[in-house]
Amino acid sequence: MVYIFKKIWFLIFLLLFSTYAYFAKMTSWAIYPFLYQYFRFAWFVVIIGIIAHFAGNAIPRKFNFESPFFAPHKWEKNGKIYQELFKIKSWKDSLMDMSKASANAQSKDVGTDLSSSHLYDLLQETCVAEVTHTVLVFAGLALLFLIELPWSILWTLAYILFNSLDIMIQRFNRPRLVSIYKRALRMEKAEAKK
Fold this sequence. Notes:
Shape: elongated
Number of domains: 1
Distance between the termini: 48 Å
Order of helices and strands: HHHHHHHH
Structural class: mainly alpha
Mean pLDDT: 86
Helix content: 55-70%
Low-confidence stretches: none
């Protein structure tokens, strides 16, 4: 919980402030129209985020990470395009990582455990994260109908952007993890033959 608060303390404060303004009907405030729309957006994000968290934990970890959906496309250059165009290494760690916020989540750090089973688990987690955030991108389109114009366009684009950034992180990390995983498998097979 402390991790979440450190990452998004301002958004939490704004959520509480907008909730107060909404229920206290502070319509005389000049910023009330913004707070009212933010209230609707933020509670949508909280509710859909909780649902996505539990759904993501319930997804069986049986993905084929080399399937066409998860494998890097030619234009992605094995994930390098995300560093070349978006400088992903400079900002990816500043986004919230739910594996650090939840006690029951699988850590996404390779650490010192380079066993094929650990790397396989990490690859599965990248697939779960990508699927979850892809679903959230489409769920975010509901904001177009839940919030009034022009705020609906702004909040929808922001929601889709932040979920797309998480998808990019998975697609950036996975090719390198696959390479390390295959190397670990080869080494373990070679050790087993000795």
